[in-house]
Specification:
The chain is built from 10 helices and 7 strands. The strands form 2 sheets. The protein has a 5-stranded parallel β-sheet with strand order 5-4-3-6-7, with helices on both faces. It is 44% helix and 14% strand. It has 272 residues and is of the alpha/beta class.
C-alpha cells in the first residue's frame, strides 16, 4: 500500500514538473517578476528584473535565427545586453566558429588553386562582416537603442577607420589563396568607394576581384533585391557562387540561392 502511494506521488510530481517546464516562458516570468529601477551614469532609468538576461538573450538569438525581423530599434531594456554581447569575447568566439565552419566547407569544394578555372566565386558583405562598425556604436552610445542615423554613420564610414572583424582577414586570404574570385557586395553608397578601399587595405584585405557598391539606380531597390541582382549577374557570367558571408539576412535573400551561406552575429540593426 505504501509502495503504491509512493509511486502515485512520484508520478504526480513528474507530471506537474513536465507541465510546468512546458508552460514556462520568459515573457511570463517578466510579467510576474518584481522589477527594480536603477539609474545609469547618464541619468537614464533602466528596468531590471531577475530574468532580463534570459529575455534579452532569447530576443538576440531569435534575431539571428531570422524569427524577429524588420525591427527599427533594439528593445530599450536589451540595449545594454546587445552592447555587452557585441563587445565580448563570446562574440569573437562565435565569429571564429563561423570562420572555422567556412574553412571546413572549403575543403569539400572542388576548387583548388591548381584546378580552378577562374569561375569559382565567393561573396562577402563589408559592414560587420569584413569591417566592424562596433567603434561607431561605442562612440555614439546607441547599440541599436536608437534608429541608425545614416548621415552620421556614413560620415564615420568615410573616415575609413573601421577595424577588421576578428578572424575575418584570415578567412579572406584562405579563400583567395584557394583560387576563388572574391566579390565584395555592400549596401554602402558609391561615393564611399575610395574610403572603403583604403580602409580594407589598411586592415589587411587585398586581392579581391570586384567591389560592388550602390549607385543611384541601386539605391532605388531594397538591399535584398540589389544583392540578389548581383548574384544573378555573376551567375549569368558563368560564375559558380560557392558561398556568401554576411551579418544581415539581406545578403542571402532572393534568387539565385548560393550553394552555402554563413551568417555572422549582429543584432544591433536590421536592414531589409
Amino acid at each position: 500500500m505504501a509502495r503504491s502511494l509512493l509511486i502515485s506521488l512520484t508520478l504526480a510530481f513528474l507530471f506537474t514538473a513536465m507541465v510546468s517546464a512546458r508552460d514556462w516562458n520568459i515573457l511570463n516570468q517578466l510579467k510576474g517578476g518584481k522589477p527594480t529601477t536603477t539609474t545609469s551614469r547618464n541619468g537614464v532609468g533602466s528596468l531590471k528584473v531577475s530574468n532580463l538576461n534570459g529575455y534579452c538573450e532569447s530576443w538576440r538569438v531569435n534575431v539571428e535565427l531570422h524569427n524577429i525581423r524588420d525591427f527599427t530599434v533594439v528593445p530599450q531594456e536589451c540595449v545594454w545586453f546587445v552592447q555587452k554581447y557585441m563587445t565580448s569575447s563570446q562574440y569573437e568566439d562565435d565569429v571564429e566558429r563561423a570562420v572555422d565552419e567556412a574553412i571546413l566547407y572549403l575543403g569539400k569544394t572542388c576548387c583548388e588553386k591548381k584546378k580552378c578555372d577562374g569561375m569559382d566565386a565567393w561573396i562577402f558583405d563589408i559592414d560587420d562582416t569584413l569591417l566592424s562598425t562596433i567603434p561607431y556604436h561605442k562612440s555614439n552610445g546607441c547599440f541599436g537603442g536608437e534608429q541608425l542615423n545614416t548621415t552620421k554613420f556614413e560620415e564615420w564610414q568615410n573616415l575609413g577607420k573601421a577595424p577588421a572583424v576578428p578572424s575575418m582577414v584570415k578567412l579572406f586570404h584562405e579563400i583567395r589563396e584557394r583560387g576563388f574570385k572574391i566579390f565584395l557586395v555592400s549596401s554602402r553608397k558609391e561615393y564611399l568607394r575610395s574610403a572603403t578601399v583604403e580602409n580594407l587595405i589598411e586592415v589587411g584585405y587585398h586581392g579581391w576581384s570586384n567591389l560592388l557598391l550602390r549607385g543611384e539606380e541601386e539605391e532605388k531597390k531594397s538591399v535584398s533585391q540589389y544583392k540578389a541582382d548581383v548574384r544573378t549577374w555573376l551567375t549569368s557570367l558563368g560564375y559558380r557562387v560557392w558561398g556568401v558571408m554576411g551579418s544581415q539576412w539581406n545578403s542571402f535573400a532572393g534568387c539565385p540561392v548560393p550553394k552555402r551561406t554563413f551568417k555572422l552575429p549582429n543584432s544591433i540593426y536590421y536592414i531589409a
